Amino acid sequence: MGLNSSKPFDPDTLPELSGKVVVVTGGAAGVGFAVVQQLARRGAKVYVAARDQPRADKAIERLRASGLGPGNGNIEYLYLDLDDPRTAKKSAEDFMQKEERLDVLGELNVCRRDAVISMLTLLPLLKRTANEPNSDVRIVIVSTDGFDAIRHPVQFKSTADFNLEYRSSIFPWPSLMRYCYSKYIVMLYASEQQRRLDDEGVPIIVMTTHPGAINSATLSPYIASIARAFVNAVFTTPTRGAYSTVFAAASDEVRAEPRMYRGAYVRPPNQCTLPPERVRDRKKAQELWALTENVLSELGVTV
């Protein structure tokens, strides 16, 4: 359900972000690259959080060469391995030794429990920043409309429930269904994180965003070569696909209407919508959260 109408959007109209610190996971390519670029151009200090440092360093070189100049922000590398929660926690602890604040956590290319790992490990610093006068702290997680494909009963009782294979003949394109399932999980995580922050009285705004139909490397495995010409003609670029996330991360409109944007799903380029009830189901979200905490505990990770 749309809470407002989508309007033309130009990232150059975003406010000045000097003094703000941003972490973007998945910022070395595609939509994430464009998000880093736009936020840095507005003056933010942006960390590209990734496991592969050589790849991230190349992306940072390209970003710096693409138009960052006097008055623009800085772009730095942050080692973050979301495949190993223990390493992810250590990376977050190292980051908190370097920085005294974190204004925006932008999560791209996340799936399954990845989103909650980085959220939980960096949450103490996000909360600390949110308690400062005139702060404006946000968590922005990229999803897609793919979550809407998950209409079958779902439970979160064991780790196997994180890893549904969709091998049954009733599910076409198993890899695509697994992708959709990961986005369903991301939506549940986001809704539960917002509820928990609201219950604590912490003024952090959590949003999910939809980049639109993007012609990117993520899409390639799901289309046949015969369809590529159509995709190239119809689908949008990663630069435009970043608009909804950049808007959610930095627009003054979000802080001006916090009640509307808390837990919202921002469709391209800037339409605030209410996610469907099934991805706001508190019982299901709490079940997912508890399972995630149990998995982390078994790995010796406390957050």
From TrEMBL:
At the top level of its lineage, which domain of life is listed?
Eukaryota
Signal peptide location:
none
InterPro entries in the cross-refs = NAD(P)-bd_dom_sf (IPR036291), SDR_fam (IPR002347)
- Tell me the keywords, alphabetical order: Oxidoreductase
Molecular function terms from GO: oxidoreductase activity
Key word S-adenosyl-L-methionine present in the record?
Answer: no
Mind telling me what this protein is named? NAD(P)-binding protein
Q: Can you name the source organism?
A: Wolfiporia cocos (strain MD-104)
